[in-house]
Design brief:
Elements lengths: L1 H10 L1 H12 L11 E8 L10 E6 L5 E6 L5 E7 L2 E8 L6 E2 L3 E3 L4 E7 L19 E4 L2 E4 L5 H4 L3 H6 L4 E4 L4 E4 L6 E4 L2 E2 L4 H10 L5 E7 L14 E6 L6 E12 L3 E13 L2 E26 L2 E28 L3 E26 L2 E30 L2 E15 L2 E10 L2 E29 L3 E24 L2 E4 L5 E19 L4 E17 L7 E17 L4 E12 L3 H4 L3 E5 L2 E4 L7 E12 L2 E11 L2 E9 L4 E8 L2 E16 L2 E16 L5 E19 L2 E10 L2 E3 L2 E3 L2 E11 L5 E8 L7 E7 L4 E7 L5 E11 L22
Helix pairs in contact: 1-2
Length: 818
Amino acid sequence: MIFMKSIIRQTGSITGIIISLLLMLIFIPPHGKAQSNISGIIVGKKNEPIAKASVVLLMARDSSLVKGTFSAEDGLFSFEDISDGEYLISASFVGLQQVYSSPFSIKDRDKNLGKIILIEARTEMNAVTIVGKKSMYEQKPDRLVINVQNSVASTGSSALDVLEHSPGVVIDRQKNSISLKGKEGVTLMINGKINYMPADAVVELLQGMNSGNIEKIELITVPPSRLDAEGNAGYINIILKNTNQFGTNGSFSATLGYGEGWVSAADLNFNHRREKINIYGNFSYSRVNKPLPVFLNSKVSNQGIILETHFLGGRTETTELLNARIGIDYQAGKKNVLGVLVTGYQRRYTQTENNEVFMLKNNQPDTNVKQSNSELNNWRDITVNLNLQHDFDKDRRLSVNLDYMYFHNNQPVFYHRAYFKSPGNFVYDETQMSSKITPIRFWIGALDYSQKMGSHFYLETGVKRTDADFLNDLGLKKFEQGSWLTDSSQTAKYRLNENYSAIYASLNMTMDNNNKGKIGLRYEYTNSNLTTGDNENLVDKHYGNLFPVISFSHKLNEIASFNLSYNIRLTRPTFNDLAPYIYYLNETTVITGNPALQPALTNTLQADYSFKKYTLSLSFSRENHSIASFQPTVDSLANKVDLTPENLDNQKLVSVLITVPLEVSNWWSMQYNLSGIWQQVIVGGNNPLKNAQLNINFNATESFRFAKNITAEISGFYQSPRLEGVYTQKGYGSLDIGIKKKLAGKNGSLIFSVSNILNSQDYVLTTNHPERNLVTDLRIGFVQRTFKLTYSRSFGNNKISEKRERSTGAEEEKGRVR
């Protein structure tokens, strides 16, 4: 009740009444008939019932897996809440032959298949595993599904590599961000639960995640109302393998590679399911050591004097990532499931660098600076989720989530600079040390209710409350006359207290076999207050927004369909973007935060057309107050450049996405994806700027099967130049190969792969606006050519059980931590 009263206080009396009405739906009994059920009985040759037989429901068109179950003691089995369509059943039991039913159709009515008879097999077999092969890409009304589990190059790569080769996805390693269809602000989910680690570590997490453990990736461009409105580009949901089986099972893998430094990774997944208890977990570790070359040239004009800065950076960095996740679900009776999920994470980043800066005045050497820097950036966190799921009956479900999250970041950086007026002519040197200690806490409560209302309607509704407490303790010290002296002008503590409340309702409608629709509405209200010791209200914001989601799907015939959708999304500034900090890139360039940032709102209209396995997607979006990172502010008198996040006036995007799969033969298949994005960026202020550009993203995969146990894959992508606020990012791409050998025994494989063969993934940003004193050229070598060898094997029972659909209540919070 305290939680509900807090929601009502924040959102007003009208919203409070809406909440009450929505929660009353919990006590409304279901009406009409639910989706169809499929049932039958498994018997032997003498008509005796067979218990514990494996029964699998498959799609008739491609034999892809829908659900699995086991027959009861009396041989009966059933699949509930099945959508209209064409299906078939596969049944098997140890020592008996596997049997397939004839294809059958269900349309708004239950289907009883009667007796399915199993007879003795000619040879003894230990177990039967059903594998449904799906197409690489599946277009659904609100998302594009990428089935990566059979990809050779993907198995030998990381989750980040898989994403970078996915249609419409762009990885920005400079900003540690992921964009989808030209829009940044993507929120990452793993197994339907938001990944809450710091945004600047998400890319490292994906780099260390072995894609051999990934079943599929969902690119959700039209998120439902039950998901938070945060993230203007939508969600990327990574579905991991091996979490839905009886007994004890799992998988492990190990990778060793070399580029211009050693790459190593190990990953273990396990699942133990017995009767009422399911225990599951994942442990992973990765270590990457590599150089990071940086080149930066800039030019500033001041009263006829042209000042040029040339920065040559030689950095060696090591990233160690440890990620742990363990959970337990307990079936308390037929209607209740209690769950606890604990996740822990630690990322230790260290770097040493020796840099050199050459400064010229009117093309003549002026000053030479040599820098020796070192940095530690250590993030750790722990998250605890408590979950209760109660099924009133087969048509009504209530889920309650409570989450607590704690982050801690320690980031000391040491700088040493030696100044020379000319080569060998030493002037002076200086030593500085900056510090940043950042603890962050979240408390989250969420209540979700769903109900089927007859065969045509499905209702979802719920409420949520989030409280966040963020502290940024910044300091700068200078070493002078044998002691460290604090620079009070660069030392401060910033505290951000923020809370936001939400309520939503969504109605799914099935008009007939060919037409489906969804109408959803979400309301969020935010209070945000940033204080320092000198200013108690540096930022004090209070705002509320409505976020509608409307979609319509029409099935033209058995092989073609059309989808249309509209939604509004929100992008809140990350905590580090709001709270100022200082990082010296070089003598003339400083990276810092911006407490004046405003949230961005995005309106998106999207249309999708599917024909067989081919898809075409069109979308238009307008984002007001877009947040662009690392935007330059130039002080021409001091020859200084501050890189800060800024609100652009607006950004418009028009995107086209085409996916084309081709089957050349039974040993050779192709997949081509092409996306085109027209992008317009408008920067306001006293000196407005408008940029527009068309960019192309193309990726392709060629898959070959040379023998029964040997497969190979050639894949690559190209991203043409695109806009980054006032910057233009030059084109880049990658060519990769992979060879996979299935090993003797059970479920083992060895993969050799080479990534970025052409060394063509350099990150290059340029600006050429002399009227704004913005003439820069930045080049960073984030990715090197790397050779990798991966061994993987799964173990344990392979009998299928039905997954528990479970998500936490914390839908966005860690994505805002940076």
